[in-house]
Amino acid sequence: METSERVGRYVRMVALEGQGTELAGALLRVADDMAAQPGCLAYVVNATPDEPDVVWVTEMWSDAASSEAALSRDIGESGLGDVLALLTAPPDYIEVTPLGGPGLAGLPG
Amino acid sequence: METSERVGRYVRMVALEGQGTELAGALLRVADDMAAQPGCLAYVVNATPDEPDVVWVTEMWSDAASSEAALSRDIGESGLGDVLALLTAPPDYIEVTPLGGPGLAGLPG
Fold first, then answer.
1. Contact across the interface for B96 and A24, Cβ inside 8 Å
2. What is the pLDDT of residues B87-96, one digit of tens each?
3. How far apart are CA B34 and CA A98, in angstroms?
4. What is the pLDDT of residues A64-95, one digit of tens each?
5. Partner-chain residue, chosen from A10, A24, A32, that has the shortest CB–CB distance to B109
6. Nearest-CB residue to A98 (from B32, B46, B98)
7. Which domains does chain B have, with CATH numbers?
8. pLDDT in tens, B41-81
């Protein structure tokens, strides 16, 4: 929808001690699933220098409805159940509104 | 270089009061320039819900050398001088290492 505002977020997750690599792997499997969801512009999994148990995900969606639809599915379907089992606490979110720039699919550079 | 590690960062900037839209506009002009720099995978400018003076940039680069080369140019060349003039304080950075997922150019989904 041309009139819907894009939504994005940076999601910070802390793994059980020593499980950062496993957490990143579980999130990369989720990313494979998210790539097929309507409106998913980005779901990039990031390690964190000097904090081996911290993983960030950069999400960008074409609109809020697409984001909600993809993330509110049964957690088994997306693989998010494996992710939740590796966390020490609920994720922290920074909500943003992607405006433009290179790397954002479907937007002018 | 296949063996070089990608680098990324989330950059948080706070505009002078009431200047958030101007700051985002200045950063979108920087983004046009960054799109032409070697190794730039993403330079996405984001507004922030409920914080009109806060702008985030999502950067992803193919390797640290490309990032340093693009960001260490004369600030007049990239347009970053216009950005710095609109800030209340130096930017805050969260450094990350992009691993994969949809939206990261050149990586498997």
1. no
2. 999 999 999 9
3. 16
4. 999 999 988 887 788 888 999 999 999 999 99
5. A32
6. B46
7. 7-96 (3.30.70.100)
8. 999 999 999 999 999 999 999 999 999 999 888 877 888 88
ipTM for the complex shown: 0.91
Nearest CA in chain A to B104: A44
Which one of B46, B80, B92 makes the best mutation probe of the A interface by having the most chain A beta carbons within 10 Å?
B46
Facing A40 at nearest CB: one of B28, B98, B102: B102
Task: Reduce the secondary structure of chain B to three states and give it as a string.
Answer: CCCCCCEEEEEEEEECCCCHHHHHHHHHHHHHHHCCCCCEEEEEEEECCCCCCEEEEEEEECCHHHHHHHHCCCHHHHCHHHHHCCECCCCEEEEEEEEECCCCCCCCC
